[in-house]
Amino acid sequence: MRLDVVTIFPEYLAPLRLSLIGRARRAGLVDLHTHDLRDFTHDRHRTVDDTPYGGGAGMVMRPEPWGEALDHVVAQGAGTSRPRLVVPGPGGAPFTQAMARELAAEPWLAFACGRYEGIDERVYEHAADDLDLAVSVVSLGDYVLNGGEVAVLAMVEAVARLVPGVVGNAESLVEESHEDGLLEYPVYTRPPSWLGRDVPDVLLSGDHGAIAAWRHTQRLLRTAARRPDLLHASAALGPEGMVAEPAVPGDAGELLTLQRACWLSEAVANDRLDIPPLTESLEEVALGIRDWQTWVVRSGGRLVGSVRARRSGVEPGAWEIGRLMVAPDLQGRGIGRALLTHAERAAPPGTALLWLNTGVASERNLRRYRRAGYRVRPGEGRLSGTVDLVKRLS
Ligand SMILES: C[S@@+](CC[C@H](N)C(=O)[O-])C[C@H]1O[C@@H](n2cnc3c(N)ncnc32)[C@H](O)[C@@H]1O
Fold first, then answer.
1. Is residue 356 one of the residues assigned to a domain?
2. Fewer CB atoms near the end CB (10 Å): N or C, the chain?
């Protein structure tokens, strides 16, 4: 990745010679060039600013040195490629981890560090219209710095560490704060006890499942405490707080989307795409809501789970349960089990048998249904490539 930074203080970028980014530069992973804006002035005082038209406080950066500096940077590409131009500014789009990822995918970035009251607006137009650059104004946060250099230091560090090879253990990037919308869990190292404070027992237990569950809970608690704005209500949903409401016709669109998301893994497991939850049209899903008793679970406004049931038309006295689904990011929390129980309890008095159907190779479903008390009926299920499961009610 090539990076060019234009600034009136090239020495401000000196820290980028240190640590991981310095090592990445020496290893040739990141090729960073700084340019002194004053080298593109032609007067004795190397002037880069002037008073604002229309009056007002402060000074504005003149367009001529900026124009020449950007022309010079673009010329480094020998006409074959162009950098994406990032201009730090408090009025820009917020710089986030997602934007860092987006910028890390670019082969070439150029940064224009403003000072004073900012850069003459025509420089942005020249960059976009005459030099054909994609221009992004990017803010480090809702506060005002004296110049763009500190913002560039932060952005280059966040972007460059995502360039493959810069951080030795790529896995360490995956679990970090903001990567999936939550903050990171608390971390500990030796000694196990320090100043009377012990490392949480679970981290010493060697039980990876328990450690993962503890860390997930800590991420939720920490995000709720420090950054409630990041926490989508779904993240905290569990079977206890879950409310299954009867579906209404307007739920059809979201149900169609959810069933497609949920049955894709079934299609892969069973090596076939012609399964109704994937092939049904919106109209057919709407008819399903009419012909079955369907319940949906919403969280933070989002439809995240559903199940449906009806008196079986094929097997007298049986209560047929189907389309049990939970959004992929919320699976493994007991929501599916709670939905199944909900559908079972809705069985009318006199029901003798609960009936389910799943793909013959859907190992995970089969395990879950067995745990919930269902038994596989020998032979092929009512639909080809499936098995029927039943649970007798006393
Ligand atoms: C004093 S600021 C100019 C502020 C400008 N008059 C305004 O109100 O938007 C000078 C320079 O610092 C940089 N800067 C200031 N705050 C920033 C922030 N939050 N994020 C990124 N860059 C910032 C920009 O390069 C800006 O041109």
1. yes
2. C
Distance (angstroms) between ligand 1 centre and the Cα of 50 equals 17
Q: How far is the centre of ligand 1, averaged over its atoms, from the C-alpha of 143 (Å)?
A: 8
CA distance 357 to 390: 9
Q: Give, for ligand 1, the residue of 144, 146, 150 to mutate: max count of ligand atoms closer than 8 Å to Cβ.
A: 144
Which numbered atom of ligand 1 lies nearest the CA of 91?
Answer: 9
In a domain, 180, yes or no: no
Q: Is residue 387 part of a domain?
A: yes
Both 45 and 151 in one domain: the answer is yes
Pairing of strands 302-311, 244-246: unpaired
On whether both 204 and 329 belong to a single domain, the answer is no
For the entire predicted model, the pTM comes to 0.69
Same domain, 53 and 77: yes
At 20-79, the pLDDT tens digits run 889 999 999 999 999 999 999 999 999 999 999 999 999 999 999 999 999 999 999 977
Which amino acid residue places its CA nearest to atom 15 of ligand 1? Answer: 145
Compute the distance between CA of residue 365 and CA of residue 304 in angstroms, rounded to an integer.
Answer: 18
Is residue 345 within a helix (H) or strand (E), and if so which, with residue range?
Answer: helix 335-345
How many domains are there within the chain?
A: 3
Residues lining ligand 1, judged by CB closer than 6 Å? 88-91, 113-115, 117-118, 139-141, 143-148, 151
Please check whether residue 184 lies inside any domain of the structure. Answer: no
Element (H, E) at 202: helix 201-204
- Structure tokens of 116? 């004073």
User: What's the domain range around 155?
Assistant: 2-173
CA of 115 to the centre of ligand 1 (A): 7
383 with 318, same domain? yes
Query: Ligand 1 mean position to 116 CA, how many Å?
Result: 8
